[in-house]
Specification:
With about 900 residues, the chain is mainly β. Helices cover about 10% and strands about 35% of the residues. It contains ten helices and 59 strands. The strands form 15 sheets. A six-stranded antiparallel β-sheet has the order 1-2-3-4-6-5, covered by helices on one side. Strands 27, 28, 29, 30 and 31 form a five-stranded antiparallel β-sheet that branches. The N and C termini lie far apart (about 65 Å).
């Protein structure tokens, strides 16, 4: 019911109507308590009369009230069925645009303030979802206020009939639910128009549309006839960037904002703010990258050169052959003979820039070192148990690495020779670590840990914040002051993932939560030659970027520019497949042909022979590979574009095509099929923890939360009689095995039961086909072995299946044979088969080696008849020396920044 002048809502007296729209009527009112004028938005009856929706609105309004920014109209409170807001005088941006385009300088100043407001809200986890000129106050005096911030999350459309595109209703409630259109038609993002899930990148699209309109003086998308026509334009109409009167850097920014591929769109609105501000300050030098001429280290002026060695096919850095040069020099380093760099082995340059270290895979993983002035790399004796990563001591004399398999230990070894020394137990094989000149090593173990470089007790350095959706802290790198470091925080919430600065002098719970850079990889700091500042090197969607950074203020100091493309990323969700020294040397892994991009699901017979060409190129697969019960499909976990996101995919062998099964900014992993093939259970981090979800395998229903708890969980098998096995990793114990019935009463959530919980690590559990036994891996004996135990009562008997190490057990369909990986050092395994008799008594045959598994222990599965195996590999190479990638070395890499 409309209000009139003199009506009261609590202490507020209505003075006059201001306007109306799909979000409700707006009035000018006087606050009798504080003697000030306010704006009151009266909510639609459809919302005000619905208790459940009003409760939702009340919760959302409290979140919005926490936004405190000079360019965001403040929310003062709630009153009855209305929201009380700051009264912002002056014209809206829509009023300004009705008079024509806005001059470039003024338009960019307005855009920068809008971006600043969006950035502040995004950092609080709030997305506008309805950004348009009518929701922006922009006076000629330079006052800019963004209105209705986040109300699209809280208010559902009333069904108001509106044939005008600019007043098309905002359909809300369930801000990220699939199938619900959010936003005003002419300004909504393609994912909104298609009814898909949205995040802050929807605001970035709308920002681009608004900036376009300010510069062009006309709407970008104007279907004319109806809202439907406008939505069609949003989804398909070509965007002609050359028609707007703007300089090329601004056009390039608009291209990033208006990219329909959400994964290629600008990731963070703060980047737009910085780009616009830098352009306004220096329009003739928009990138603001002015590196000083490279200053060579003392040994380099007579040392830089690269030459091809005919016959050996190797590149050699021949320091004595050429005069000094500041030009960019590029060459490649081949992998050692019969040794692979592997799909998950980033290189590591020594701090002095003279040596390159990496983990090589052959019969065993091993640490290798190559001096850049020699032809060949050499393995370091005693490091045969090395896992996938390695990093240097500050003096370039020692290396740190992790052993494999479990129990994992952090070790150090002198490059000149000598046995490795254990520094501490780590509980897992971390992606990498960092070693400070003050004798402190930091590494990942969920949060970051610290340990003296001489060895000792590990102590927490950072702490995961579950309220921010954080799932890991990774890839640390020390800054020049030796006390601060940059590191990567992964999060199920895109607005919280990226690079942060930590300190050795701060308690774990007090580390800064201010993100300095949005990216999908770790970052390394490299000083700029001749300057106190430097660059953060990081990857963004496979491109290596350099962004100016001030290590004193700990702030970004300019815009990022590309350095190299097609940077390879291994099977880890985030990787840092590049390395640089302060001496101007840069090396990185590329994903050229024959590399990671050519990895396929490949069939092998029982002798290890490759069967056919395999599937289409799949790319990187993380944990999880599972056949459907009828063998026509395989579900797997795919790391999209080498970035921080993991989704589930299905490959159909009949159609010979892969299709996406889940789509969420959080990580999905470990798919397991139901016995009838109608459902898939998997783990997802979408709610900030690794909980169990299920979904119909025909992709016709949304994901359903199956079981939630504070512990991380991974499903491992689903028995024919309806029990789900899963691995649970608690805070006070290692991985344990739990199970729960899946055939309980409808509507009643399944209740998990503990199968095995000991002081040791148990996992990778698989039911025997008859459901009476469970095969699993445990370090009960000090190393991982495969065991067989009765189910559901584990006290009925236990038998050791493997000898000399074993993991990842699988069964044949008839239960007469078991397969597992040998658990060899460094992830170099053999596939083993064991004959099994379960009745009338358990009898195990001797383990028989079938074949050497190529390229480590990535997941595999076996057909029901036990005759074919499938795993990720390069199909035309049958051994572990397959050329999966190249190492590219750049000398004087900062010369790239001048181009």
């Amino acid at each position: 019911m409309p209000l009139t002048a003199g009506d009261r809502l609590g202490p507020y007296e209505i003075l006059a109507p201001i306007g109306a729209g799909g979000m409700g009527e707006v009035y000018r009112a006087r606050d009798s308590k504080l003697d000030r004028e306010v704006a009151i938005k009266v909510l639609p009856d459809a919302l005000a009369n619905n208790p459940d929706r009003m409760a939702r609105f009340d919760r959302e309004a409290k979140v919005l009230a926490a936004l405190n920014h000079p360019n965001i109209a403040a929310i003062y409170g709630l009153e009855d069925r209305a929201i009380v807001m700051e009264l912002v005088e002056g014209p809206t941006l829509a009023d300004r645009l009705a008079m024509g385009p806005i001059a470039l300088q003024e338009a960019l100043k307005i855009a920068a303030l809008i971006a600043d407001a969006l950035e502040a809200a995004h950092e609080k986890g709030t997305v506008h979802r309805d950004l348009k000129p009518a929701n922006i106050k922009a006076s000629p005096e330079g006052v800019v206020k963004v209105l209705d911030f986040g109300l699209a999350t809280a208010v559902q459309a009333t069904g108001r009939d509106s044939s005008q595109v600019m007043n098309s209703p905002t359909l809300t409630m369930g801000a990220t639910e699939v199938g619900v259109i959010l936003g005003t038609a002419a300004y909504m993002s393609p994912e909104q128009a298609a009814g898909r899930q949205v995040d802050k990148r929807a605001d970035i699209w709308s920002f681009g549309v608004v900036l376009w309109e300010m510069l062009a003086g006309r709407r970008l998308f104007d279907g004319g006839e109806s809202v439907s026509h406008t939505l069609a334009d949003v989804l398909r109409a070509e965007v002609d960037f050359e028609r707007i009167p703007a300089p090329q850097p601004i056009k390039e920014l608009l291209k990033r904002c208006l990219d329909r591929d959400i994964k290629s769109r600008l990731r963070d609105i703060g980047e737009a703010r910085v780009a616009i501000s830098r352009y306004l300050e220096h329009p003739d030098d928009p990138l603001q990258i002015r590196p000083q001429p490279p200053a060579h280290p003392a040994w380099l002026p007579w040392a830089i050169a690269a030459m091809a060695v005919i016959g050996a096919g190797a590149a050699v850095w021949a320091p004595w052959r050429v005069p000094p040069t500041a030009d960019l020099i590029r060459f490649e380093i081949p992998q050692p003979e019969k040794t692979s760099f592997g799909p998950n082995a980033p290189p590591a340059l020594s701090p002095d820039g003279r040596k390159l270290a990496f983990i090589g895979r052959s019969d065993a993983n091993q640490v290798w070192v190559r001096s850049l002035d020699t032809l060949e790399a050499r393995p370091l004796p005693g490091t045969e148990s090395a896992a996938a990563t390695v990093f240097w001591s500050p003096d370039s004399r020692s290396l740190a690495y992790w052993n494999a398999p479990a129990p994992f230990k952090l070790k150090r070894v002198d490059v000149a020779g000598g046995p490795p020394q254990s520094l501490c137990d780590t509980g897992a094989s971390p992606p990498t670590g960092a070693w400070s000149p003050d004798g402190v090593i930091i590494f990942q173990n969920d949060g970051l840990m610290r340990v003296p470089a001489a060895g000792g007790d590990c102590a927490p350095l950072t702490k995961l914040d579950s309220t921010r959706g954080e799932t890991a802290h990774r890839l640390p790198f020390f800054l020049p002051d030796r006390r601060h470091f940059v590191y990567f925080r992964t999060s199920s919430r895109a607005e919280n993932a990226g690079i942060y600065v930590g300190s050795l002098d701060v308690r774990p719970e007090q580390q800064s939560t201010e993100r300095i850079l949005a990216t999908d990889s770790g970052a390394q700091f490299v000083p700029s030659q001749g300057s106190n500042r430097g660059y953060l090197l990081f990857t963004r969607e496979g491109t290596l970027m350099a962004q100016p950074f001030d290590p004193e203020s700990l702030k970004i100091a300019g815009d990022a520019v590309p350095v190299a493309e097609h940077i390879g990323s291994g099977t880890a969700p985030v990787g840092s497949f590049f390395t640089a020294s302060a001496t101007g040397v840069l090396a990185y892994r590329s994903g050229a042909s024959g590399g990671i991009g050519n990895l396929r699901l490949t069939w092998f017979d029982r002798q290890g022979k490759v069967l056919g060409a395999g599937t289409e190129p799949i790319g990187v697969i993380n944990s999880g590979l599972s056949f459907s019960p009828d063998g026509t499909q395989v579900a797997f976990t795919r790391n999209d574009s080498g970035g921080g996101n993991q989704d589930l995919w299905l490959y159909d062998f009949t159609r010979k095509a892969a299709s996406r099964f889940t789509s969420d900014p959080a990580m999905d992993m470990a798919p397991i099929w139901s016995p009838d093939g109608k459902q898939i259970v998997f783990t997802s981090e979408r709610d900030g923890a690794r909980n169990l979800y299920r979904k119909a395998s025909n992709n016709t229903t949304p994901e359903e939360l199956l079981f939630k708890s504070s512990e991380a969980k991974l499903p491992t098998d689903w028995s024919r009689n309806g029990y789900l096995l899963f691995q649970s990793i608690g805070q006070r114990s290692g991985p344990d095995i739990l199970y729960m019935p899946m055939n309980g009463p409808e509507g009643k959530p399944p209740k998990p039961e503990v199968y095995l919980r000991t002081d040791f690590q148990e996992g990778q559990a698989r039911f025997s086909p008859d459901g009476r036994f469970v095969a699993y891996a445990s370090d009960f004996s000090g190393t991982l072995e495969v065991y067989l135990q009765t189910f559901p009562d584990p006290k009925g008997g236990r038998w050791q299946v493997s000898k000399g190490g074993g993991q990842m057990p699988h069964w044949s369909r008839d239960g007469k044979e078991m397969f597992y990986l040998s658990g060899g050092q460094g992830g170099n395994n053999k596939l083993i088969a064991v004959q099994v008799t379960l009745a009338p008594a358990v009898k195990l045959g001797d383990p028989r080696t079938l074949f050497q598994v190529p390229t480590g222990t990535v997941p595999f599965d076996v057909t029901g008849d036990g005759q074919k195996f499938i795993k990720l590999a390069v199909p035309d190479v049958q051994n572990s020396s397959s050329p999966l990638a190249t190492l590219t070395v750049l000398l004087n890499w900062q010369a790239v920044l001048k181009k």
